[in-house]
């Protein structure tokens, strides 16, 4: 039988790296094997545990939560042609800003390593000690946060630093004024109870996990677009080598994020198969809570939020484009590349 209970130290365990992950004296997490293949950080015990828990879930008739990034595959602002066009015209501040903002948002993810989450066992009838759900406060969520924000006290950067390094080796850290992430767009029902059958702290945790999964999906699409831009052979002609290195860095982040997505799908897949105790002394299937919330989240993320985000992004891009001496002409051509 596969091992299903893991100590925190096992989940944190690292592979033995033949070479550390470092660029221009900046140490980042993870490393490389003897063949030069990148290995994500803290993936030794964690990967084995995820595979064991997934196998156990499927043996009970369940499966990973059925969702992937394709549900967010709508048009982006800017699209690839527009992004390439702006950089080619010398309007590279939007791309520089996106790298900076993404790095700062990733850094905020380190809060996962500092938060205390409620114990879901308190409302679940079945024993979850041999499931991923039973290990959320035993390292799983903290590791996710460390992946994002690194270990500053040890001088090891996470995804935040990796984004800044990708930016700096191509553009330099002073290419444009510093920029902060835009204000988050909240769902209209934010603050309204959508799982009134359970106490607010447990609803908050389940909501957090589902929103985090949606964020990971949105990030994956953006990361892929960024990598594609760095690899566009028409750009960075005098910096092709460092642009390829930047693209490789983003690829390593994407590889790390695959573990996050799989983990979140596992947590939600496990919860759907369990029995939840309700406030009134009754019970209901976990799937009822998960599916109800997710359906509303999908509607917001695929129909409502993209329109608001695209409008806000266009206003910001337009402002930066018009600062160029040929701004009006560039904006006209930029608009023609839409769709």
**How far apart lie the N and C ends?**
53 Å
Classification by helices and strands: mainly alpha
**Total number of beta strands:** 5
What sort of overall outline do the alpha carbons produce when their principal axes are compared? globular
Strand content: 5-15%
Physical arrangement of strands within the biggest beta sheet? 1-2-3
- Number of structural units classed as domains: 1
Order of helices and strands: HEEEHHHHHHHEEHH
Low-confidence stretches: none
Helical content band: 40-55%
Q: Radius of gyration, Cα only, in angstroms?
A: 22 Å
For the largest beta-sheet, the strand count, sense and barrel status come to: 3 strands, antiparallel
Overall description:
This protein has 339 residues and is mainly alpha-helical. It has one domain. It contains 10 helices and 5 strands; from the N terminus they run αβββαααααααββαα. The protein has helices at residues 8-12, 44-59, 80-88, 93-108, 136-149, 159-170, 200-230, 240-272, 286-321, 327-336, and strands spanning 19-23, 26-32, 38-39, 275-277, 283-285. The strands form 2 sheets. A 3-stranded antiparallel beta sheet has the order 1-2-3. A two-stranded antiparallel ribbon has the order 4-5. Helix 2 packs parallel to helix 8 and helix 7 packs antiparallel against helix 8. The model has no long low-confidence stretch (mean pLDDT 95).
């Amino acid at each position: 039988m596969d091992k299903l209970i893991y100590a925190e130290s096992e989940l944190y365990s690292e592979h033995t790296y033949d070479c550390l992950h470092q660029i221009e004296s900046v140490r980042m997490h993870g490393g490389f094997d003897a063949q030069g293949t990148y290995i994500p950080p803290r993936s030794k015990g964690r990967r084995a545990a995820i595979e064991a828990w997934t196998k156990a879930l499927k043996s009970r008739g369940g499966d990973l939560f059925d969702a992937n990034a394709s549900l967010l595959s709508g048009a982006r602002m800017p699209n690839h042609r527009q992004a390439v066009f702006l950089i080619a015209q010398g309007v590279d501040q939007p791309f520089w800003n996106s790298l900076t903002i993404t790095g700062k948002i990733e850094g905020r993810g380190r809060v996962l390593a500092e938060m205390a989450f409620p114990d879901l066992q308190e409302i679940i009838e079945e024993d979850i000690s041999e499931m991923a759900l039973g290990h959320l406060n035993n390292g799983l969520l903290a590791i996710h946060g460390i992946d994002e924000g690194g270990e500053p006290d040890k001088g090891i950067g996470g995804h935040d630093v990796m984004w800044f390094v990708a930016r700096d080796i191509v553009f330099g850290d002073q290419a444009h004024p510093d920029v902060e992430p835009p204000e988050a767009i909240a769902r209209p029902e934010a603050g309204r109870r959508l799982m009134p059958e359970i106490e607010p702290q447990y609803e908050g945790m389940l909501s957090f996990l589902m929103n985090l999964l949606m964020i990971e999906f949105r990030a994956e699409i953006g990361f892929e677009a960024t990598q594609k831009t760095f690899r566009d052979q028409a750009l960075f002609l005098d910096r092709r080598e460092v642009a390829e290195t930047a693209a490789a860095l983003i690829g390593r982040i994407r590889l790390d994020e695959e573990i996050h997505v799989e983990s979140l799908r596992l947590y939600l897949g496990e919860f759907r198969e369990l029995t939840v105790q309700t406030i009134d002394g009754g019970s209901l299937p976990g799937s009822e809570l998960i599916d109800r919330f997710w359906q509303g989240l999908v509607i917001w993320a695929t129909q409502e939020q993209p329109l608001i985000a695209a409008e806000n992004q266009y206003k910001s891009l337009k402002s930066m484009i018009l600062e160029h001496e040929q701004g009006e002409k560039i904006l006209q051509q930029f608009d023609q590349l839409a769709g």
